[in-house]
């Protein structure tokens, strides 16, 4: 019988991000999904300690890193993918539509002319035809845009890693006001996810608690999401559009959007060093 993955979650409270390690319990292959590199926007200093937790867990459990995966270009934390690959090996991946994001944000941040906008910074670009696995555990990719044009959902066995597409049922769904975001598209993507079997476990990319819930949570199921998600259950596409438009108009940009996007669209690598050997993040004035 084909096993299902064992999933270990690491919650980074400064960014409210959950990084997942999914591994085959029989043969030990693993995937790291949506890693975090700490970053202090005041000093510009990075912090590898969130990634070191991942490295220690993998080494302590004798896991073999097959994949270092991103569900999308994150705007609220920096990826630790280059550091993890250096320490553990593995194939870095993202959705094939990454080029759409790179083109949009290259203009916004006025990146160097030689910056490639075809996703080559990642080892492998994924779409719904991609073949992947954790040993004997089959994997598949769902293209689930709406939050961004390049969002994917990663499925291994009975586990679906949805990134920022769906949050916990009592919190709702992701914002759609980033460049290329679209509430109508997100509604369709969410229903693509919710067409998976009821028992599929859904692992979301962030949690922020709610007024009624004082503990962080990040796992639900297709059935629970379909029946109780406050933005989706019993809602039409038009009602969802109204909910998202109203909600998005009230929320601020993520605190780390400026460094995160500039670094993450480079697969977690810093911008090229300047003449003094140091990398710099650009802050657009009166643009975002």
Structural features, described:
The chain is of the alpha/beta class and 288 residues long. It has one domain: Ribonuclease Z/Hydroxyacylglutathione hydrolase-like (Metallo-beta-lactamase, Chain A). Helix content is 24%, strand content 22%. It is built from 7 helices and 14 strands. A 6-stranded mixed sheet has the order 1-2-3-6-7-8, with helices on one face. Strand 10 and strand 11 form a beta hairpin. Helix 1 packs parallel to helix 2 and helix 4 crosses helix 6. The relative contact order is 0.16.
Short account of what is shown:
The protein is an alpha/beta fold.
Radius of gyration (CA) equals: 18 Å
Beta-strand percent range: 15-25%
- The name of the CATH superfamily reads Ribonuclease Z/Hydroxyacylglutathione hydrolase-like
- Classification by helices and strands: alpha/beta
How many individual domains? 1
Largest sheet: spatial strand order: 1-2-3-6-7-8
Distance between the termini: 51 Å
CATH topology label: Metallo-beta-lactamase, Chain A
Helix and strand run: EEEEEHEHEHEEEEEHEEHHH
- Low-pLDDT residue intervals, each spanning 5 or more residues: none
Q: What would CATH call the class?
A: Alpha Beta
The total strand number stands at 14
**The CATH architecture:** 4-Layer Sandwich
Q: Give the overall average pLDDT.
A: 97
